[in-house]
Amino acid sequence: MTAQVQALLFDLGGVVIDIDFNRAFEHWQPVSRLSLDEIKAGFQFDAAYQQHERGEITAAQYFTHLSNTLQLQEGHARVAEGWNALFLGEISETLAMIQLARGQLPCYAFTNSNTAHQAAWSAMFPAVVQAFDRIFVSSDMGCRKPERKAFDHIARAINVAPQAILFFDDLAENVAGAQAAGLQAVHVRGPEDVRAALERIGCMT
After folding, report:
1. Cβ partners under 8 Å of residue 31, min gap 6
2. N or C: more exposed end of the chain, with fewer CB within 10 A?
3. What is the pLDDT of residues 23-41, one digit of tens each?
4. Domain final position from 84, 107, 133
5. Residue 25 gets which letter from DSSP?
6. Model-level pTM?
7. CA 205, CA 189: separation in Å to the nearest integer?
8. Residue 162 maps to which CATH number?
9. Which residues form the domain of 133?
10. What is the DSSP string of 133-184?
């Protein structure tokens, strides 16, 4: 039997904030020795990317890694501009549903992010920040989705049993990681998936 939901937990990028890595690649290409297609192929969610999201390396260290990997010929300021260019805007339909649901259940966010991106989205999207009781950021926690210890950390922090947390994410591996940690989870392909899940638990009235 599925436990009654006592808290909602949302990913940010791809669920509440629209992102497009192509924006970063296009920003970097004029200062790279590589073509746009080569930059796209060369960018990886590699060990350095994951270390950056856990707060294990600094933004400067990660930007140096990007500069070397993508053959970028300008300094960290230009790398950072491209890095932050990937944010497109709020997904307003989903944000409105979260604001409504928060009247019935506590709403939290959990994002795999880093200090540079956190500073950017916090400034760009104040309504998103204000929509949640708390935002958990991987670089603050020292762990990231889909690692079990990340979900365990959040369950302890909000004092809610994992099975009573309903989690929303756009990446299948994060949904699977949440389910392995005992959470209920929804694979979000668009706002309609969020709406259907919230309607099932009576949070859209």
Report:
1. 72, 73, 74, 78
2. N
3. 999 999 999 999 999 999 9
4. 84
5. H
6. 0.95
7. 23
8. 3.40.50.1000
9. 7-18+89-200
10. SEEEEHHHHT--TT-HHHHHHHHHHHT--GGGEEEEES-HHHHHHHHHTT-E
**Residue at 155: amino acid letter:** A
Rounded Cα distance, 1 and 80, in Å: 47
Whether 181 shows a pLDDT value over 80: the answer reads yes
Note the pLDDT tens digit of each residue in 120-176. 999 999 999 999 999 999 999 999 999 999 999 999 999 999 999 999 999 999 999
Q: Which amino acid is at 63?
A: F
Q: Cβ distance 108 to 158 under 8 Å? A: yes
CATH number of the domain encompassing residue 66: 1.10.150.240
Please indicate, yes or no, if residue 2 is contained in any of the structural domains: no
Give the whole-angstrom CA distance, residue 68 versus residue 71. 5
Q: Report residue 140 as tokens.
A: 């603050």
d(CA 43, CA 70): 7
